[in-house]
Amino acid sequence: MAIVDLFCFLLFCHLVLILSAGYGNGHQDCPHSFTCGNLGTFNYPFTKAEKPDCGLIAIHDCDNPHQHRKMIQLEKNGKSIVLTGVAQQNAISILDEDFHKLLQQDPCGTLKNNYSLPSPFSLYSIHIKFNVTLFRCKHSLKMKPPAHYFNHSCPDYDYDIYYDSLPSPNDKEVHSLFSSCSVIQISSKDLTNTNDILSFVSAEMVLQVVLSNDCDQCYNRWGGQCRLDANQEFYCEKAPKNKSKILKLVLVLGLVTAVTVALLLVMVKIYHTRWKKQNPTNQQIRIFLEREGPLQTKRYDYSEIKKVTNSFRNKLGQGGFGSVYKGKLPDGRYLAVKILSELKDNGEDFINEVATISRTSHINIVNLLGFCCEGSKRALVYEFMSNGSLEKFIFEENVVKTDRQLDCQTIYHIAVGVARGLEYLHQGCNTRILHFDIKPHNILLDENFNPKISDFGLAKICTRKESMISIFGARGTAGYIAPEVFSRNFGAVSHKSDVYSYGMMILEMVGRRKNIKTEVNRSSEIYFPDWIYNCLESNQELGLQNIRNESDDKLVRKMTIVGLWCIQTHPSTRPAISKVLEMLGSKVELLQIPPKPFLSSPPTSPVHLSYETL
Question: Where do transmembrane segments lie in this chain (predicted)?
Answer without folding.
Answer: 246-268
